[in-house]
Amino acid sequence: MNQPRKPDAARQADLERLDAQFAAEDREDRRKEAERRRKGLPEPKRDLRAFEGFADGGAAPRD
Predict the structure, then answer these.
(1) Looking at CB atoms within 10 Å, which of 11, 20, 28, 61 has the fewest?
(2) Residues of the chain where predicted confidence (pLDDT) is lower than 70
(3) CB neighbours of 58 closer than 8 A, spacing ≥ 6?
(4) DSSP 44-61
């Protein structure tokens, strides 16, 4: 029977640290967004870019 591999203690600690960092960055982003809304500032312009041949229709269709 194939059982999933359990991460060792060091890897688990690294994953938990990374999760905490992501959570802190998310909280900071939400705080900044709420502050922007409270001040009545407009939403920042988004810089959307498409790679050539991907979103401009240049990609070959699959058969």
Answers:
(1) 61
(2) 1-4, 6-7, 50-63
(3) 52
(4) PPP-----TTTTTS-SPP
